[in-house]
Amino acid sequence: MLKKVMVRAHELAKTFVGNYSARMSLALRQAWAEAKAPKAPRYVTVDLHSNKRSKTWVAAIIGTHPVYKLDRKFVNPVRYGSTEWELKAGIYEVCEAGKRYFIRVANGDYQRIDADDVMEMVA
Q1: Which of 50, 55, 56, 61 is paired with 80 by a 20 to 30 Å CA distance?
Q2: In 10 A of CB 102, how many CB atoms?
Q3: CA 4 from centroid of its chain's CA atoms
Q4: CB 61 within 8 A of CB 101
Q5: Domain limits of the chain?
Q6: Nearest C-alpha neighbor of 122 from the set 57, 65, 83, 73
Q7: Residue 28 to residues 2, 32, 106: CA-CA distances in angstroms?
Q8: Are 58 and 71 in contact (CB under 8 A)?
C-alpha cells in the first residue's frame, strides 16, 4: 500500500505548481486521504427466496436482442444450491420464486425498476 501511495503522490506532485518539496508534501497528504477513504463495495449480495415449484435465477442485462428484446447472461449464485448472488453494478432481471422483475445495482445498493426504464437504459 505504501508503494501505491508514493506513486500516486508523485503523479499528483507533477500536476502542481511551485517548490517540489511543498508540492510533494501536499501530494502526500492528498494521496493518503485517497488511500484511507472508504471504498464503495465491489459487489452487492442479494438474498432471494425460493420454493420447490419455481426456480430462482438472476440474469445480467447485456444489451438488446432482435427477437427477445433484451439480451441477458445468467449469473451463478455464490455457491451451488444457494439463493445468494454477488452482483456488480448494472441492470439485472430476477426471477424470485416464479415472480420476475428488474433491479439496478449501483453505489453498493440495489433497487427495483420498471421494464420501461430498463428499455430506455439499454436502448
Answers
A1: 61
A2: 20
A3: 23
A4: no
A5: 2-36, 44-122
A6: 65
A7: 11, 6, 30
A8: no
Render pLDDT for 37-82 as a digit per residue (tens, 0 to 9): 876 666 677 777 777 777 888 899 998 889 988 999 998 888 777 7
Q: Which three cell numbers stand for residue 116?
A: 420501461
pLDDT tens sequence across 14-34: 988 889 899 999 999 999 998
pLDDT of residue 41: 60
**Cell numbers standing for residue 102:** 428488474
| Cell numbers 501536499: residue | 26
Name beta bridge partners: 75. Answer: 58
Per-residue model confidence as pLDDT tens digits over 90-120 = 899 998 888 889 999 888 788 999 988 888 8
